Amino acid sequence: MIILGLTGSIGMGKSTTAKMFADLGVPVNDADAVVHSLYQGEAVAPIEAAFPGATKNGAVDRSELSRQLSENPTLFPTLEAIVHPLVRERERVFLDLHRVAGAPLVVLDIPLLFETKAQNRVDAVAVVTCDPEIQRERVMKRPGMTAEKFALILSRQTPDAEKRAKADYIIDTGHGLDSAREQVSAIVQRLTSQKRP
After folding, report:
1. Does the annotation flag 13 for ligand binding?
2. pLDDT, mean of residues 138-162
3. Global confidence as pTM
4. What is d(CA 107, CA 105) in angstroms, rounded to the nearest whole number?
5. Across the chain, where does the E strand assignment appear?
6. CB 121 within 8 Å of CB 31
7. Would you tell me which of 8, 15, 117, 140 could form a disulfide with 128, CB atoms 3.0–4.6 Å apart?
8. What is the CA radius of gyration of the chain?
9. pLDDT tier for residue 155 given thresholds of 50, 70 and 90
10. What is the pLDDT of residue 152?
11. Superfamily name and number for 1-27+105-197
12. Annotated binding residue at 117?
């Protein structure tokens, strides 16, 4: 089974691209969806202990947690120490399940792939990218997004050029959905027609 890591900076179209892999029948483990689930389950108690007031009605209040982190960015490693091991455990279960099922290819959708050294856990890396102008336009349309928040997020992400330099595959989402689908399809065909990239 080949494990493809999928990553890309905020606003590059990673979630849409992950769905394109899924539409082709490739199992996708979405780290964001896993975190969302953890924020309503196993992560709630440890996050409340480390970030008092950051949970509400038995779930993590993302806007309050975000507020605390933007006020004190030195707390990011505290949050990561809680969340990353839980995400890794879910990832392990996903991989075991599809290995047993005989899947030829799976995708691990990991937003901070290079930042967390996750490239060491995959066979190949695909980086989703687009022009910075398109990226900014997409991100600034998000509810509650500000220029300051966008800058903080970017400061915590490996620069796009560096990600592209380290990638085995690059998917450019700046030319429309059909173009991106063709790129995804070509990667899937290439990886499933050989044992290793």
Report:
1. yes
2. 89
3. 0.85
4. 7
5. 2-7, 28-30, 55-56, 59-60, 105-109, 124-129, 169-172
6. no
7. 8
8. 17
9. confident
10. 85
11. P-loop containing nucleotide triphosphate hydrolases (3.40.50.300)
12. no
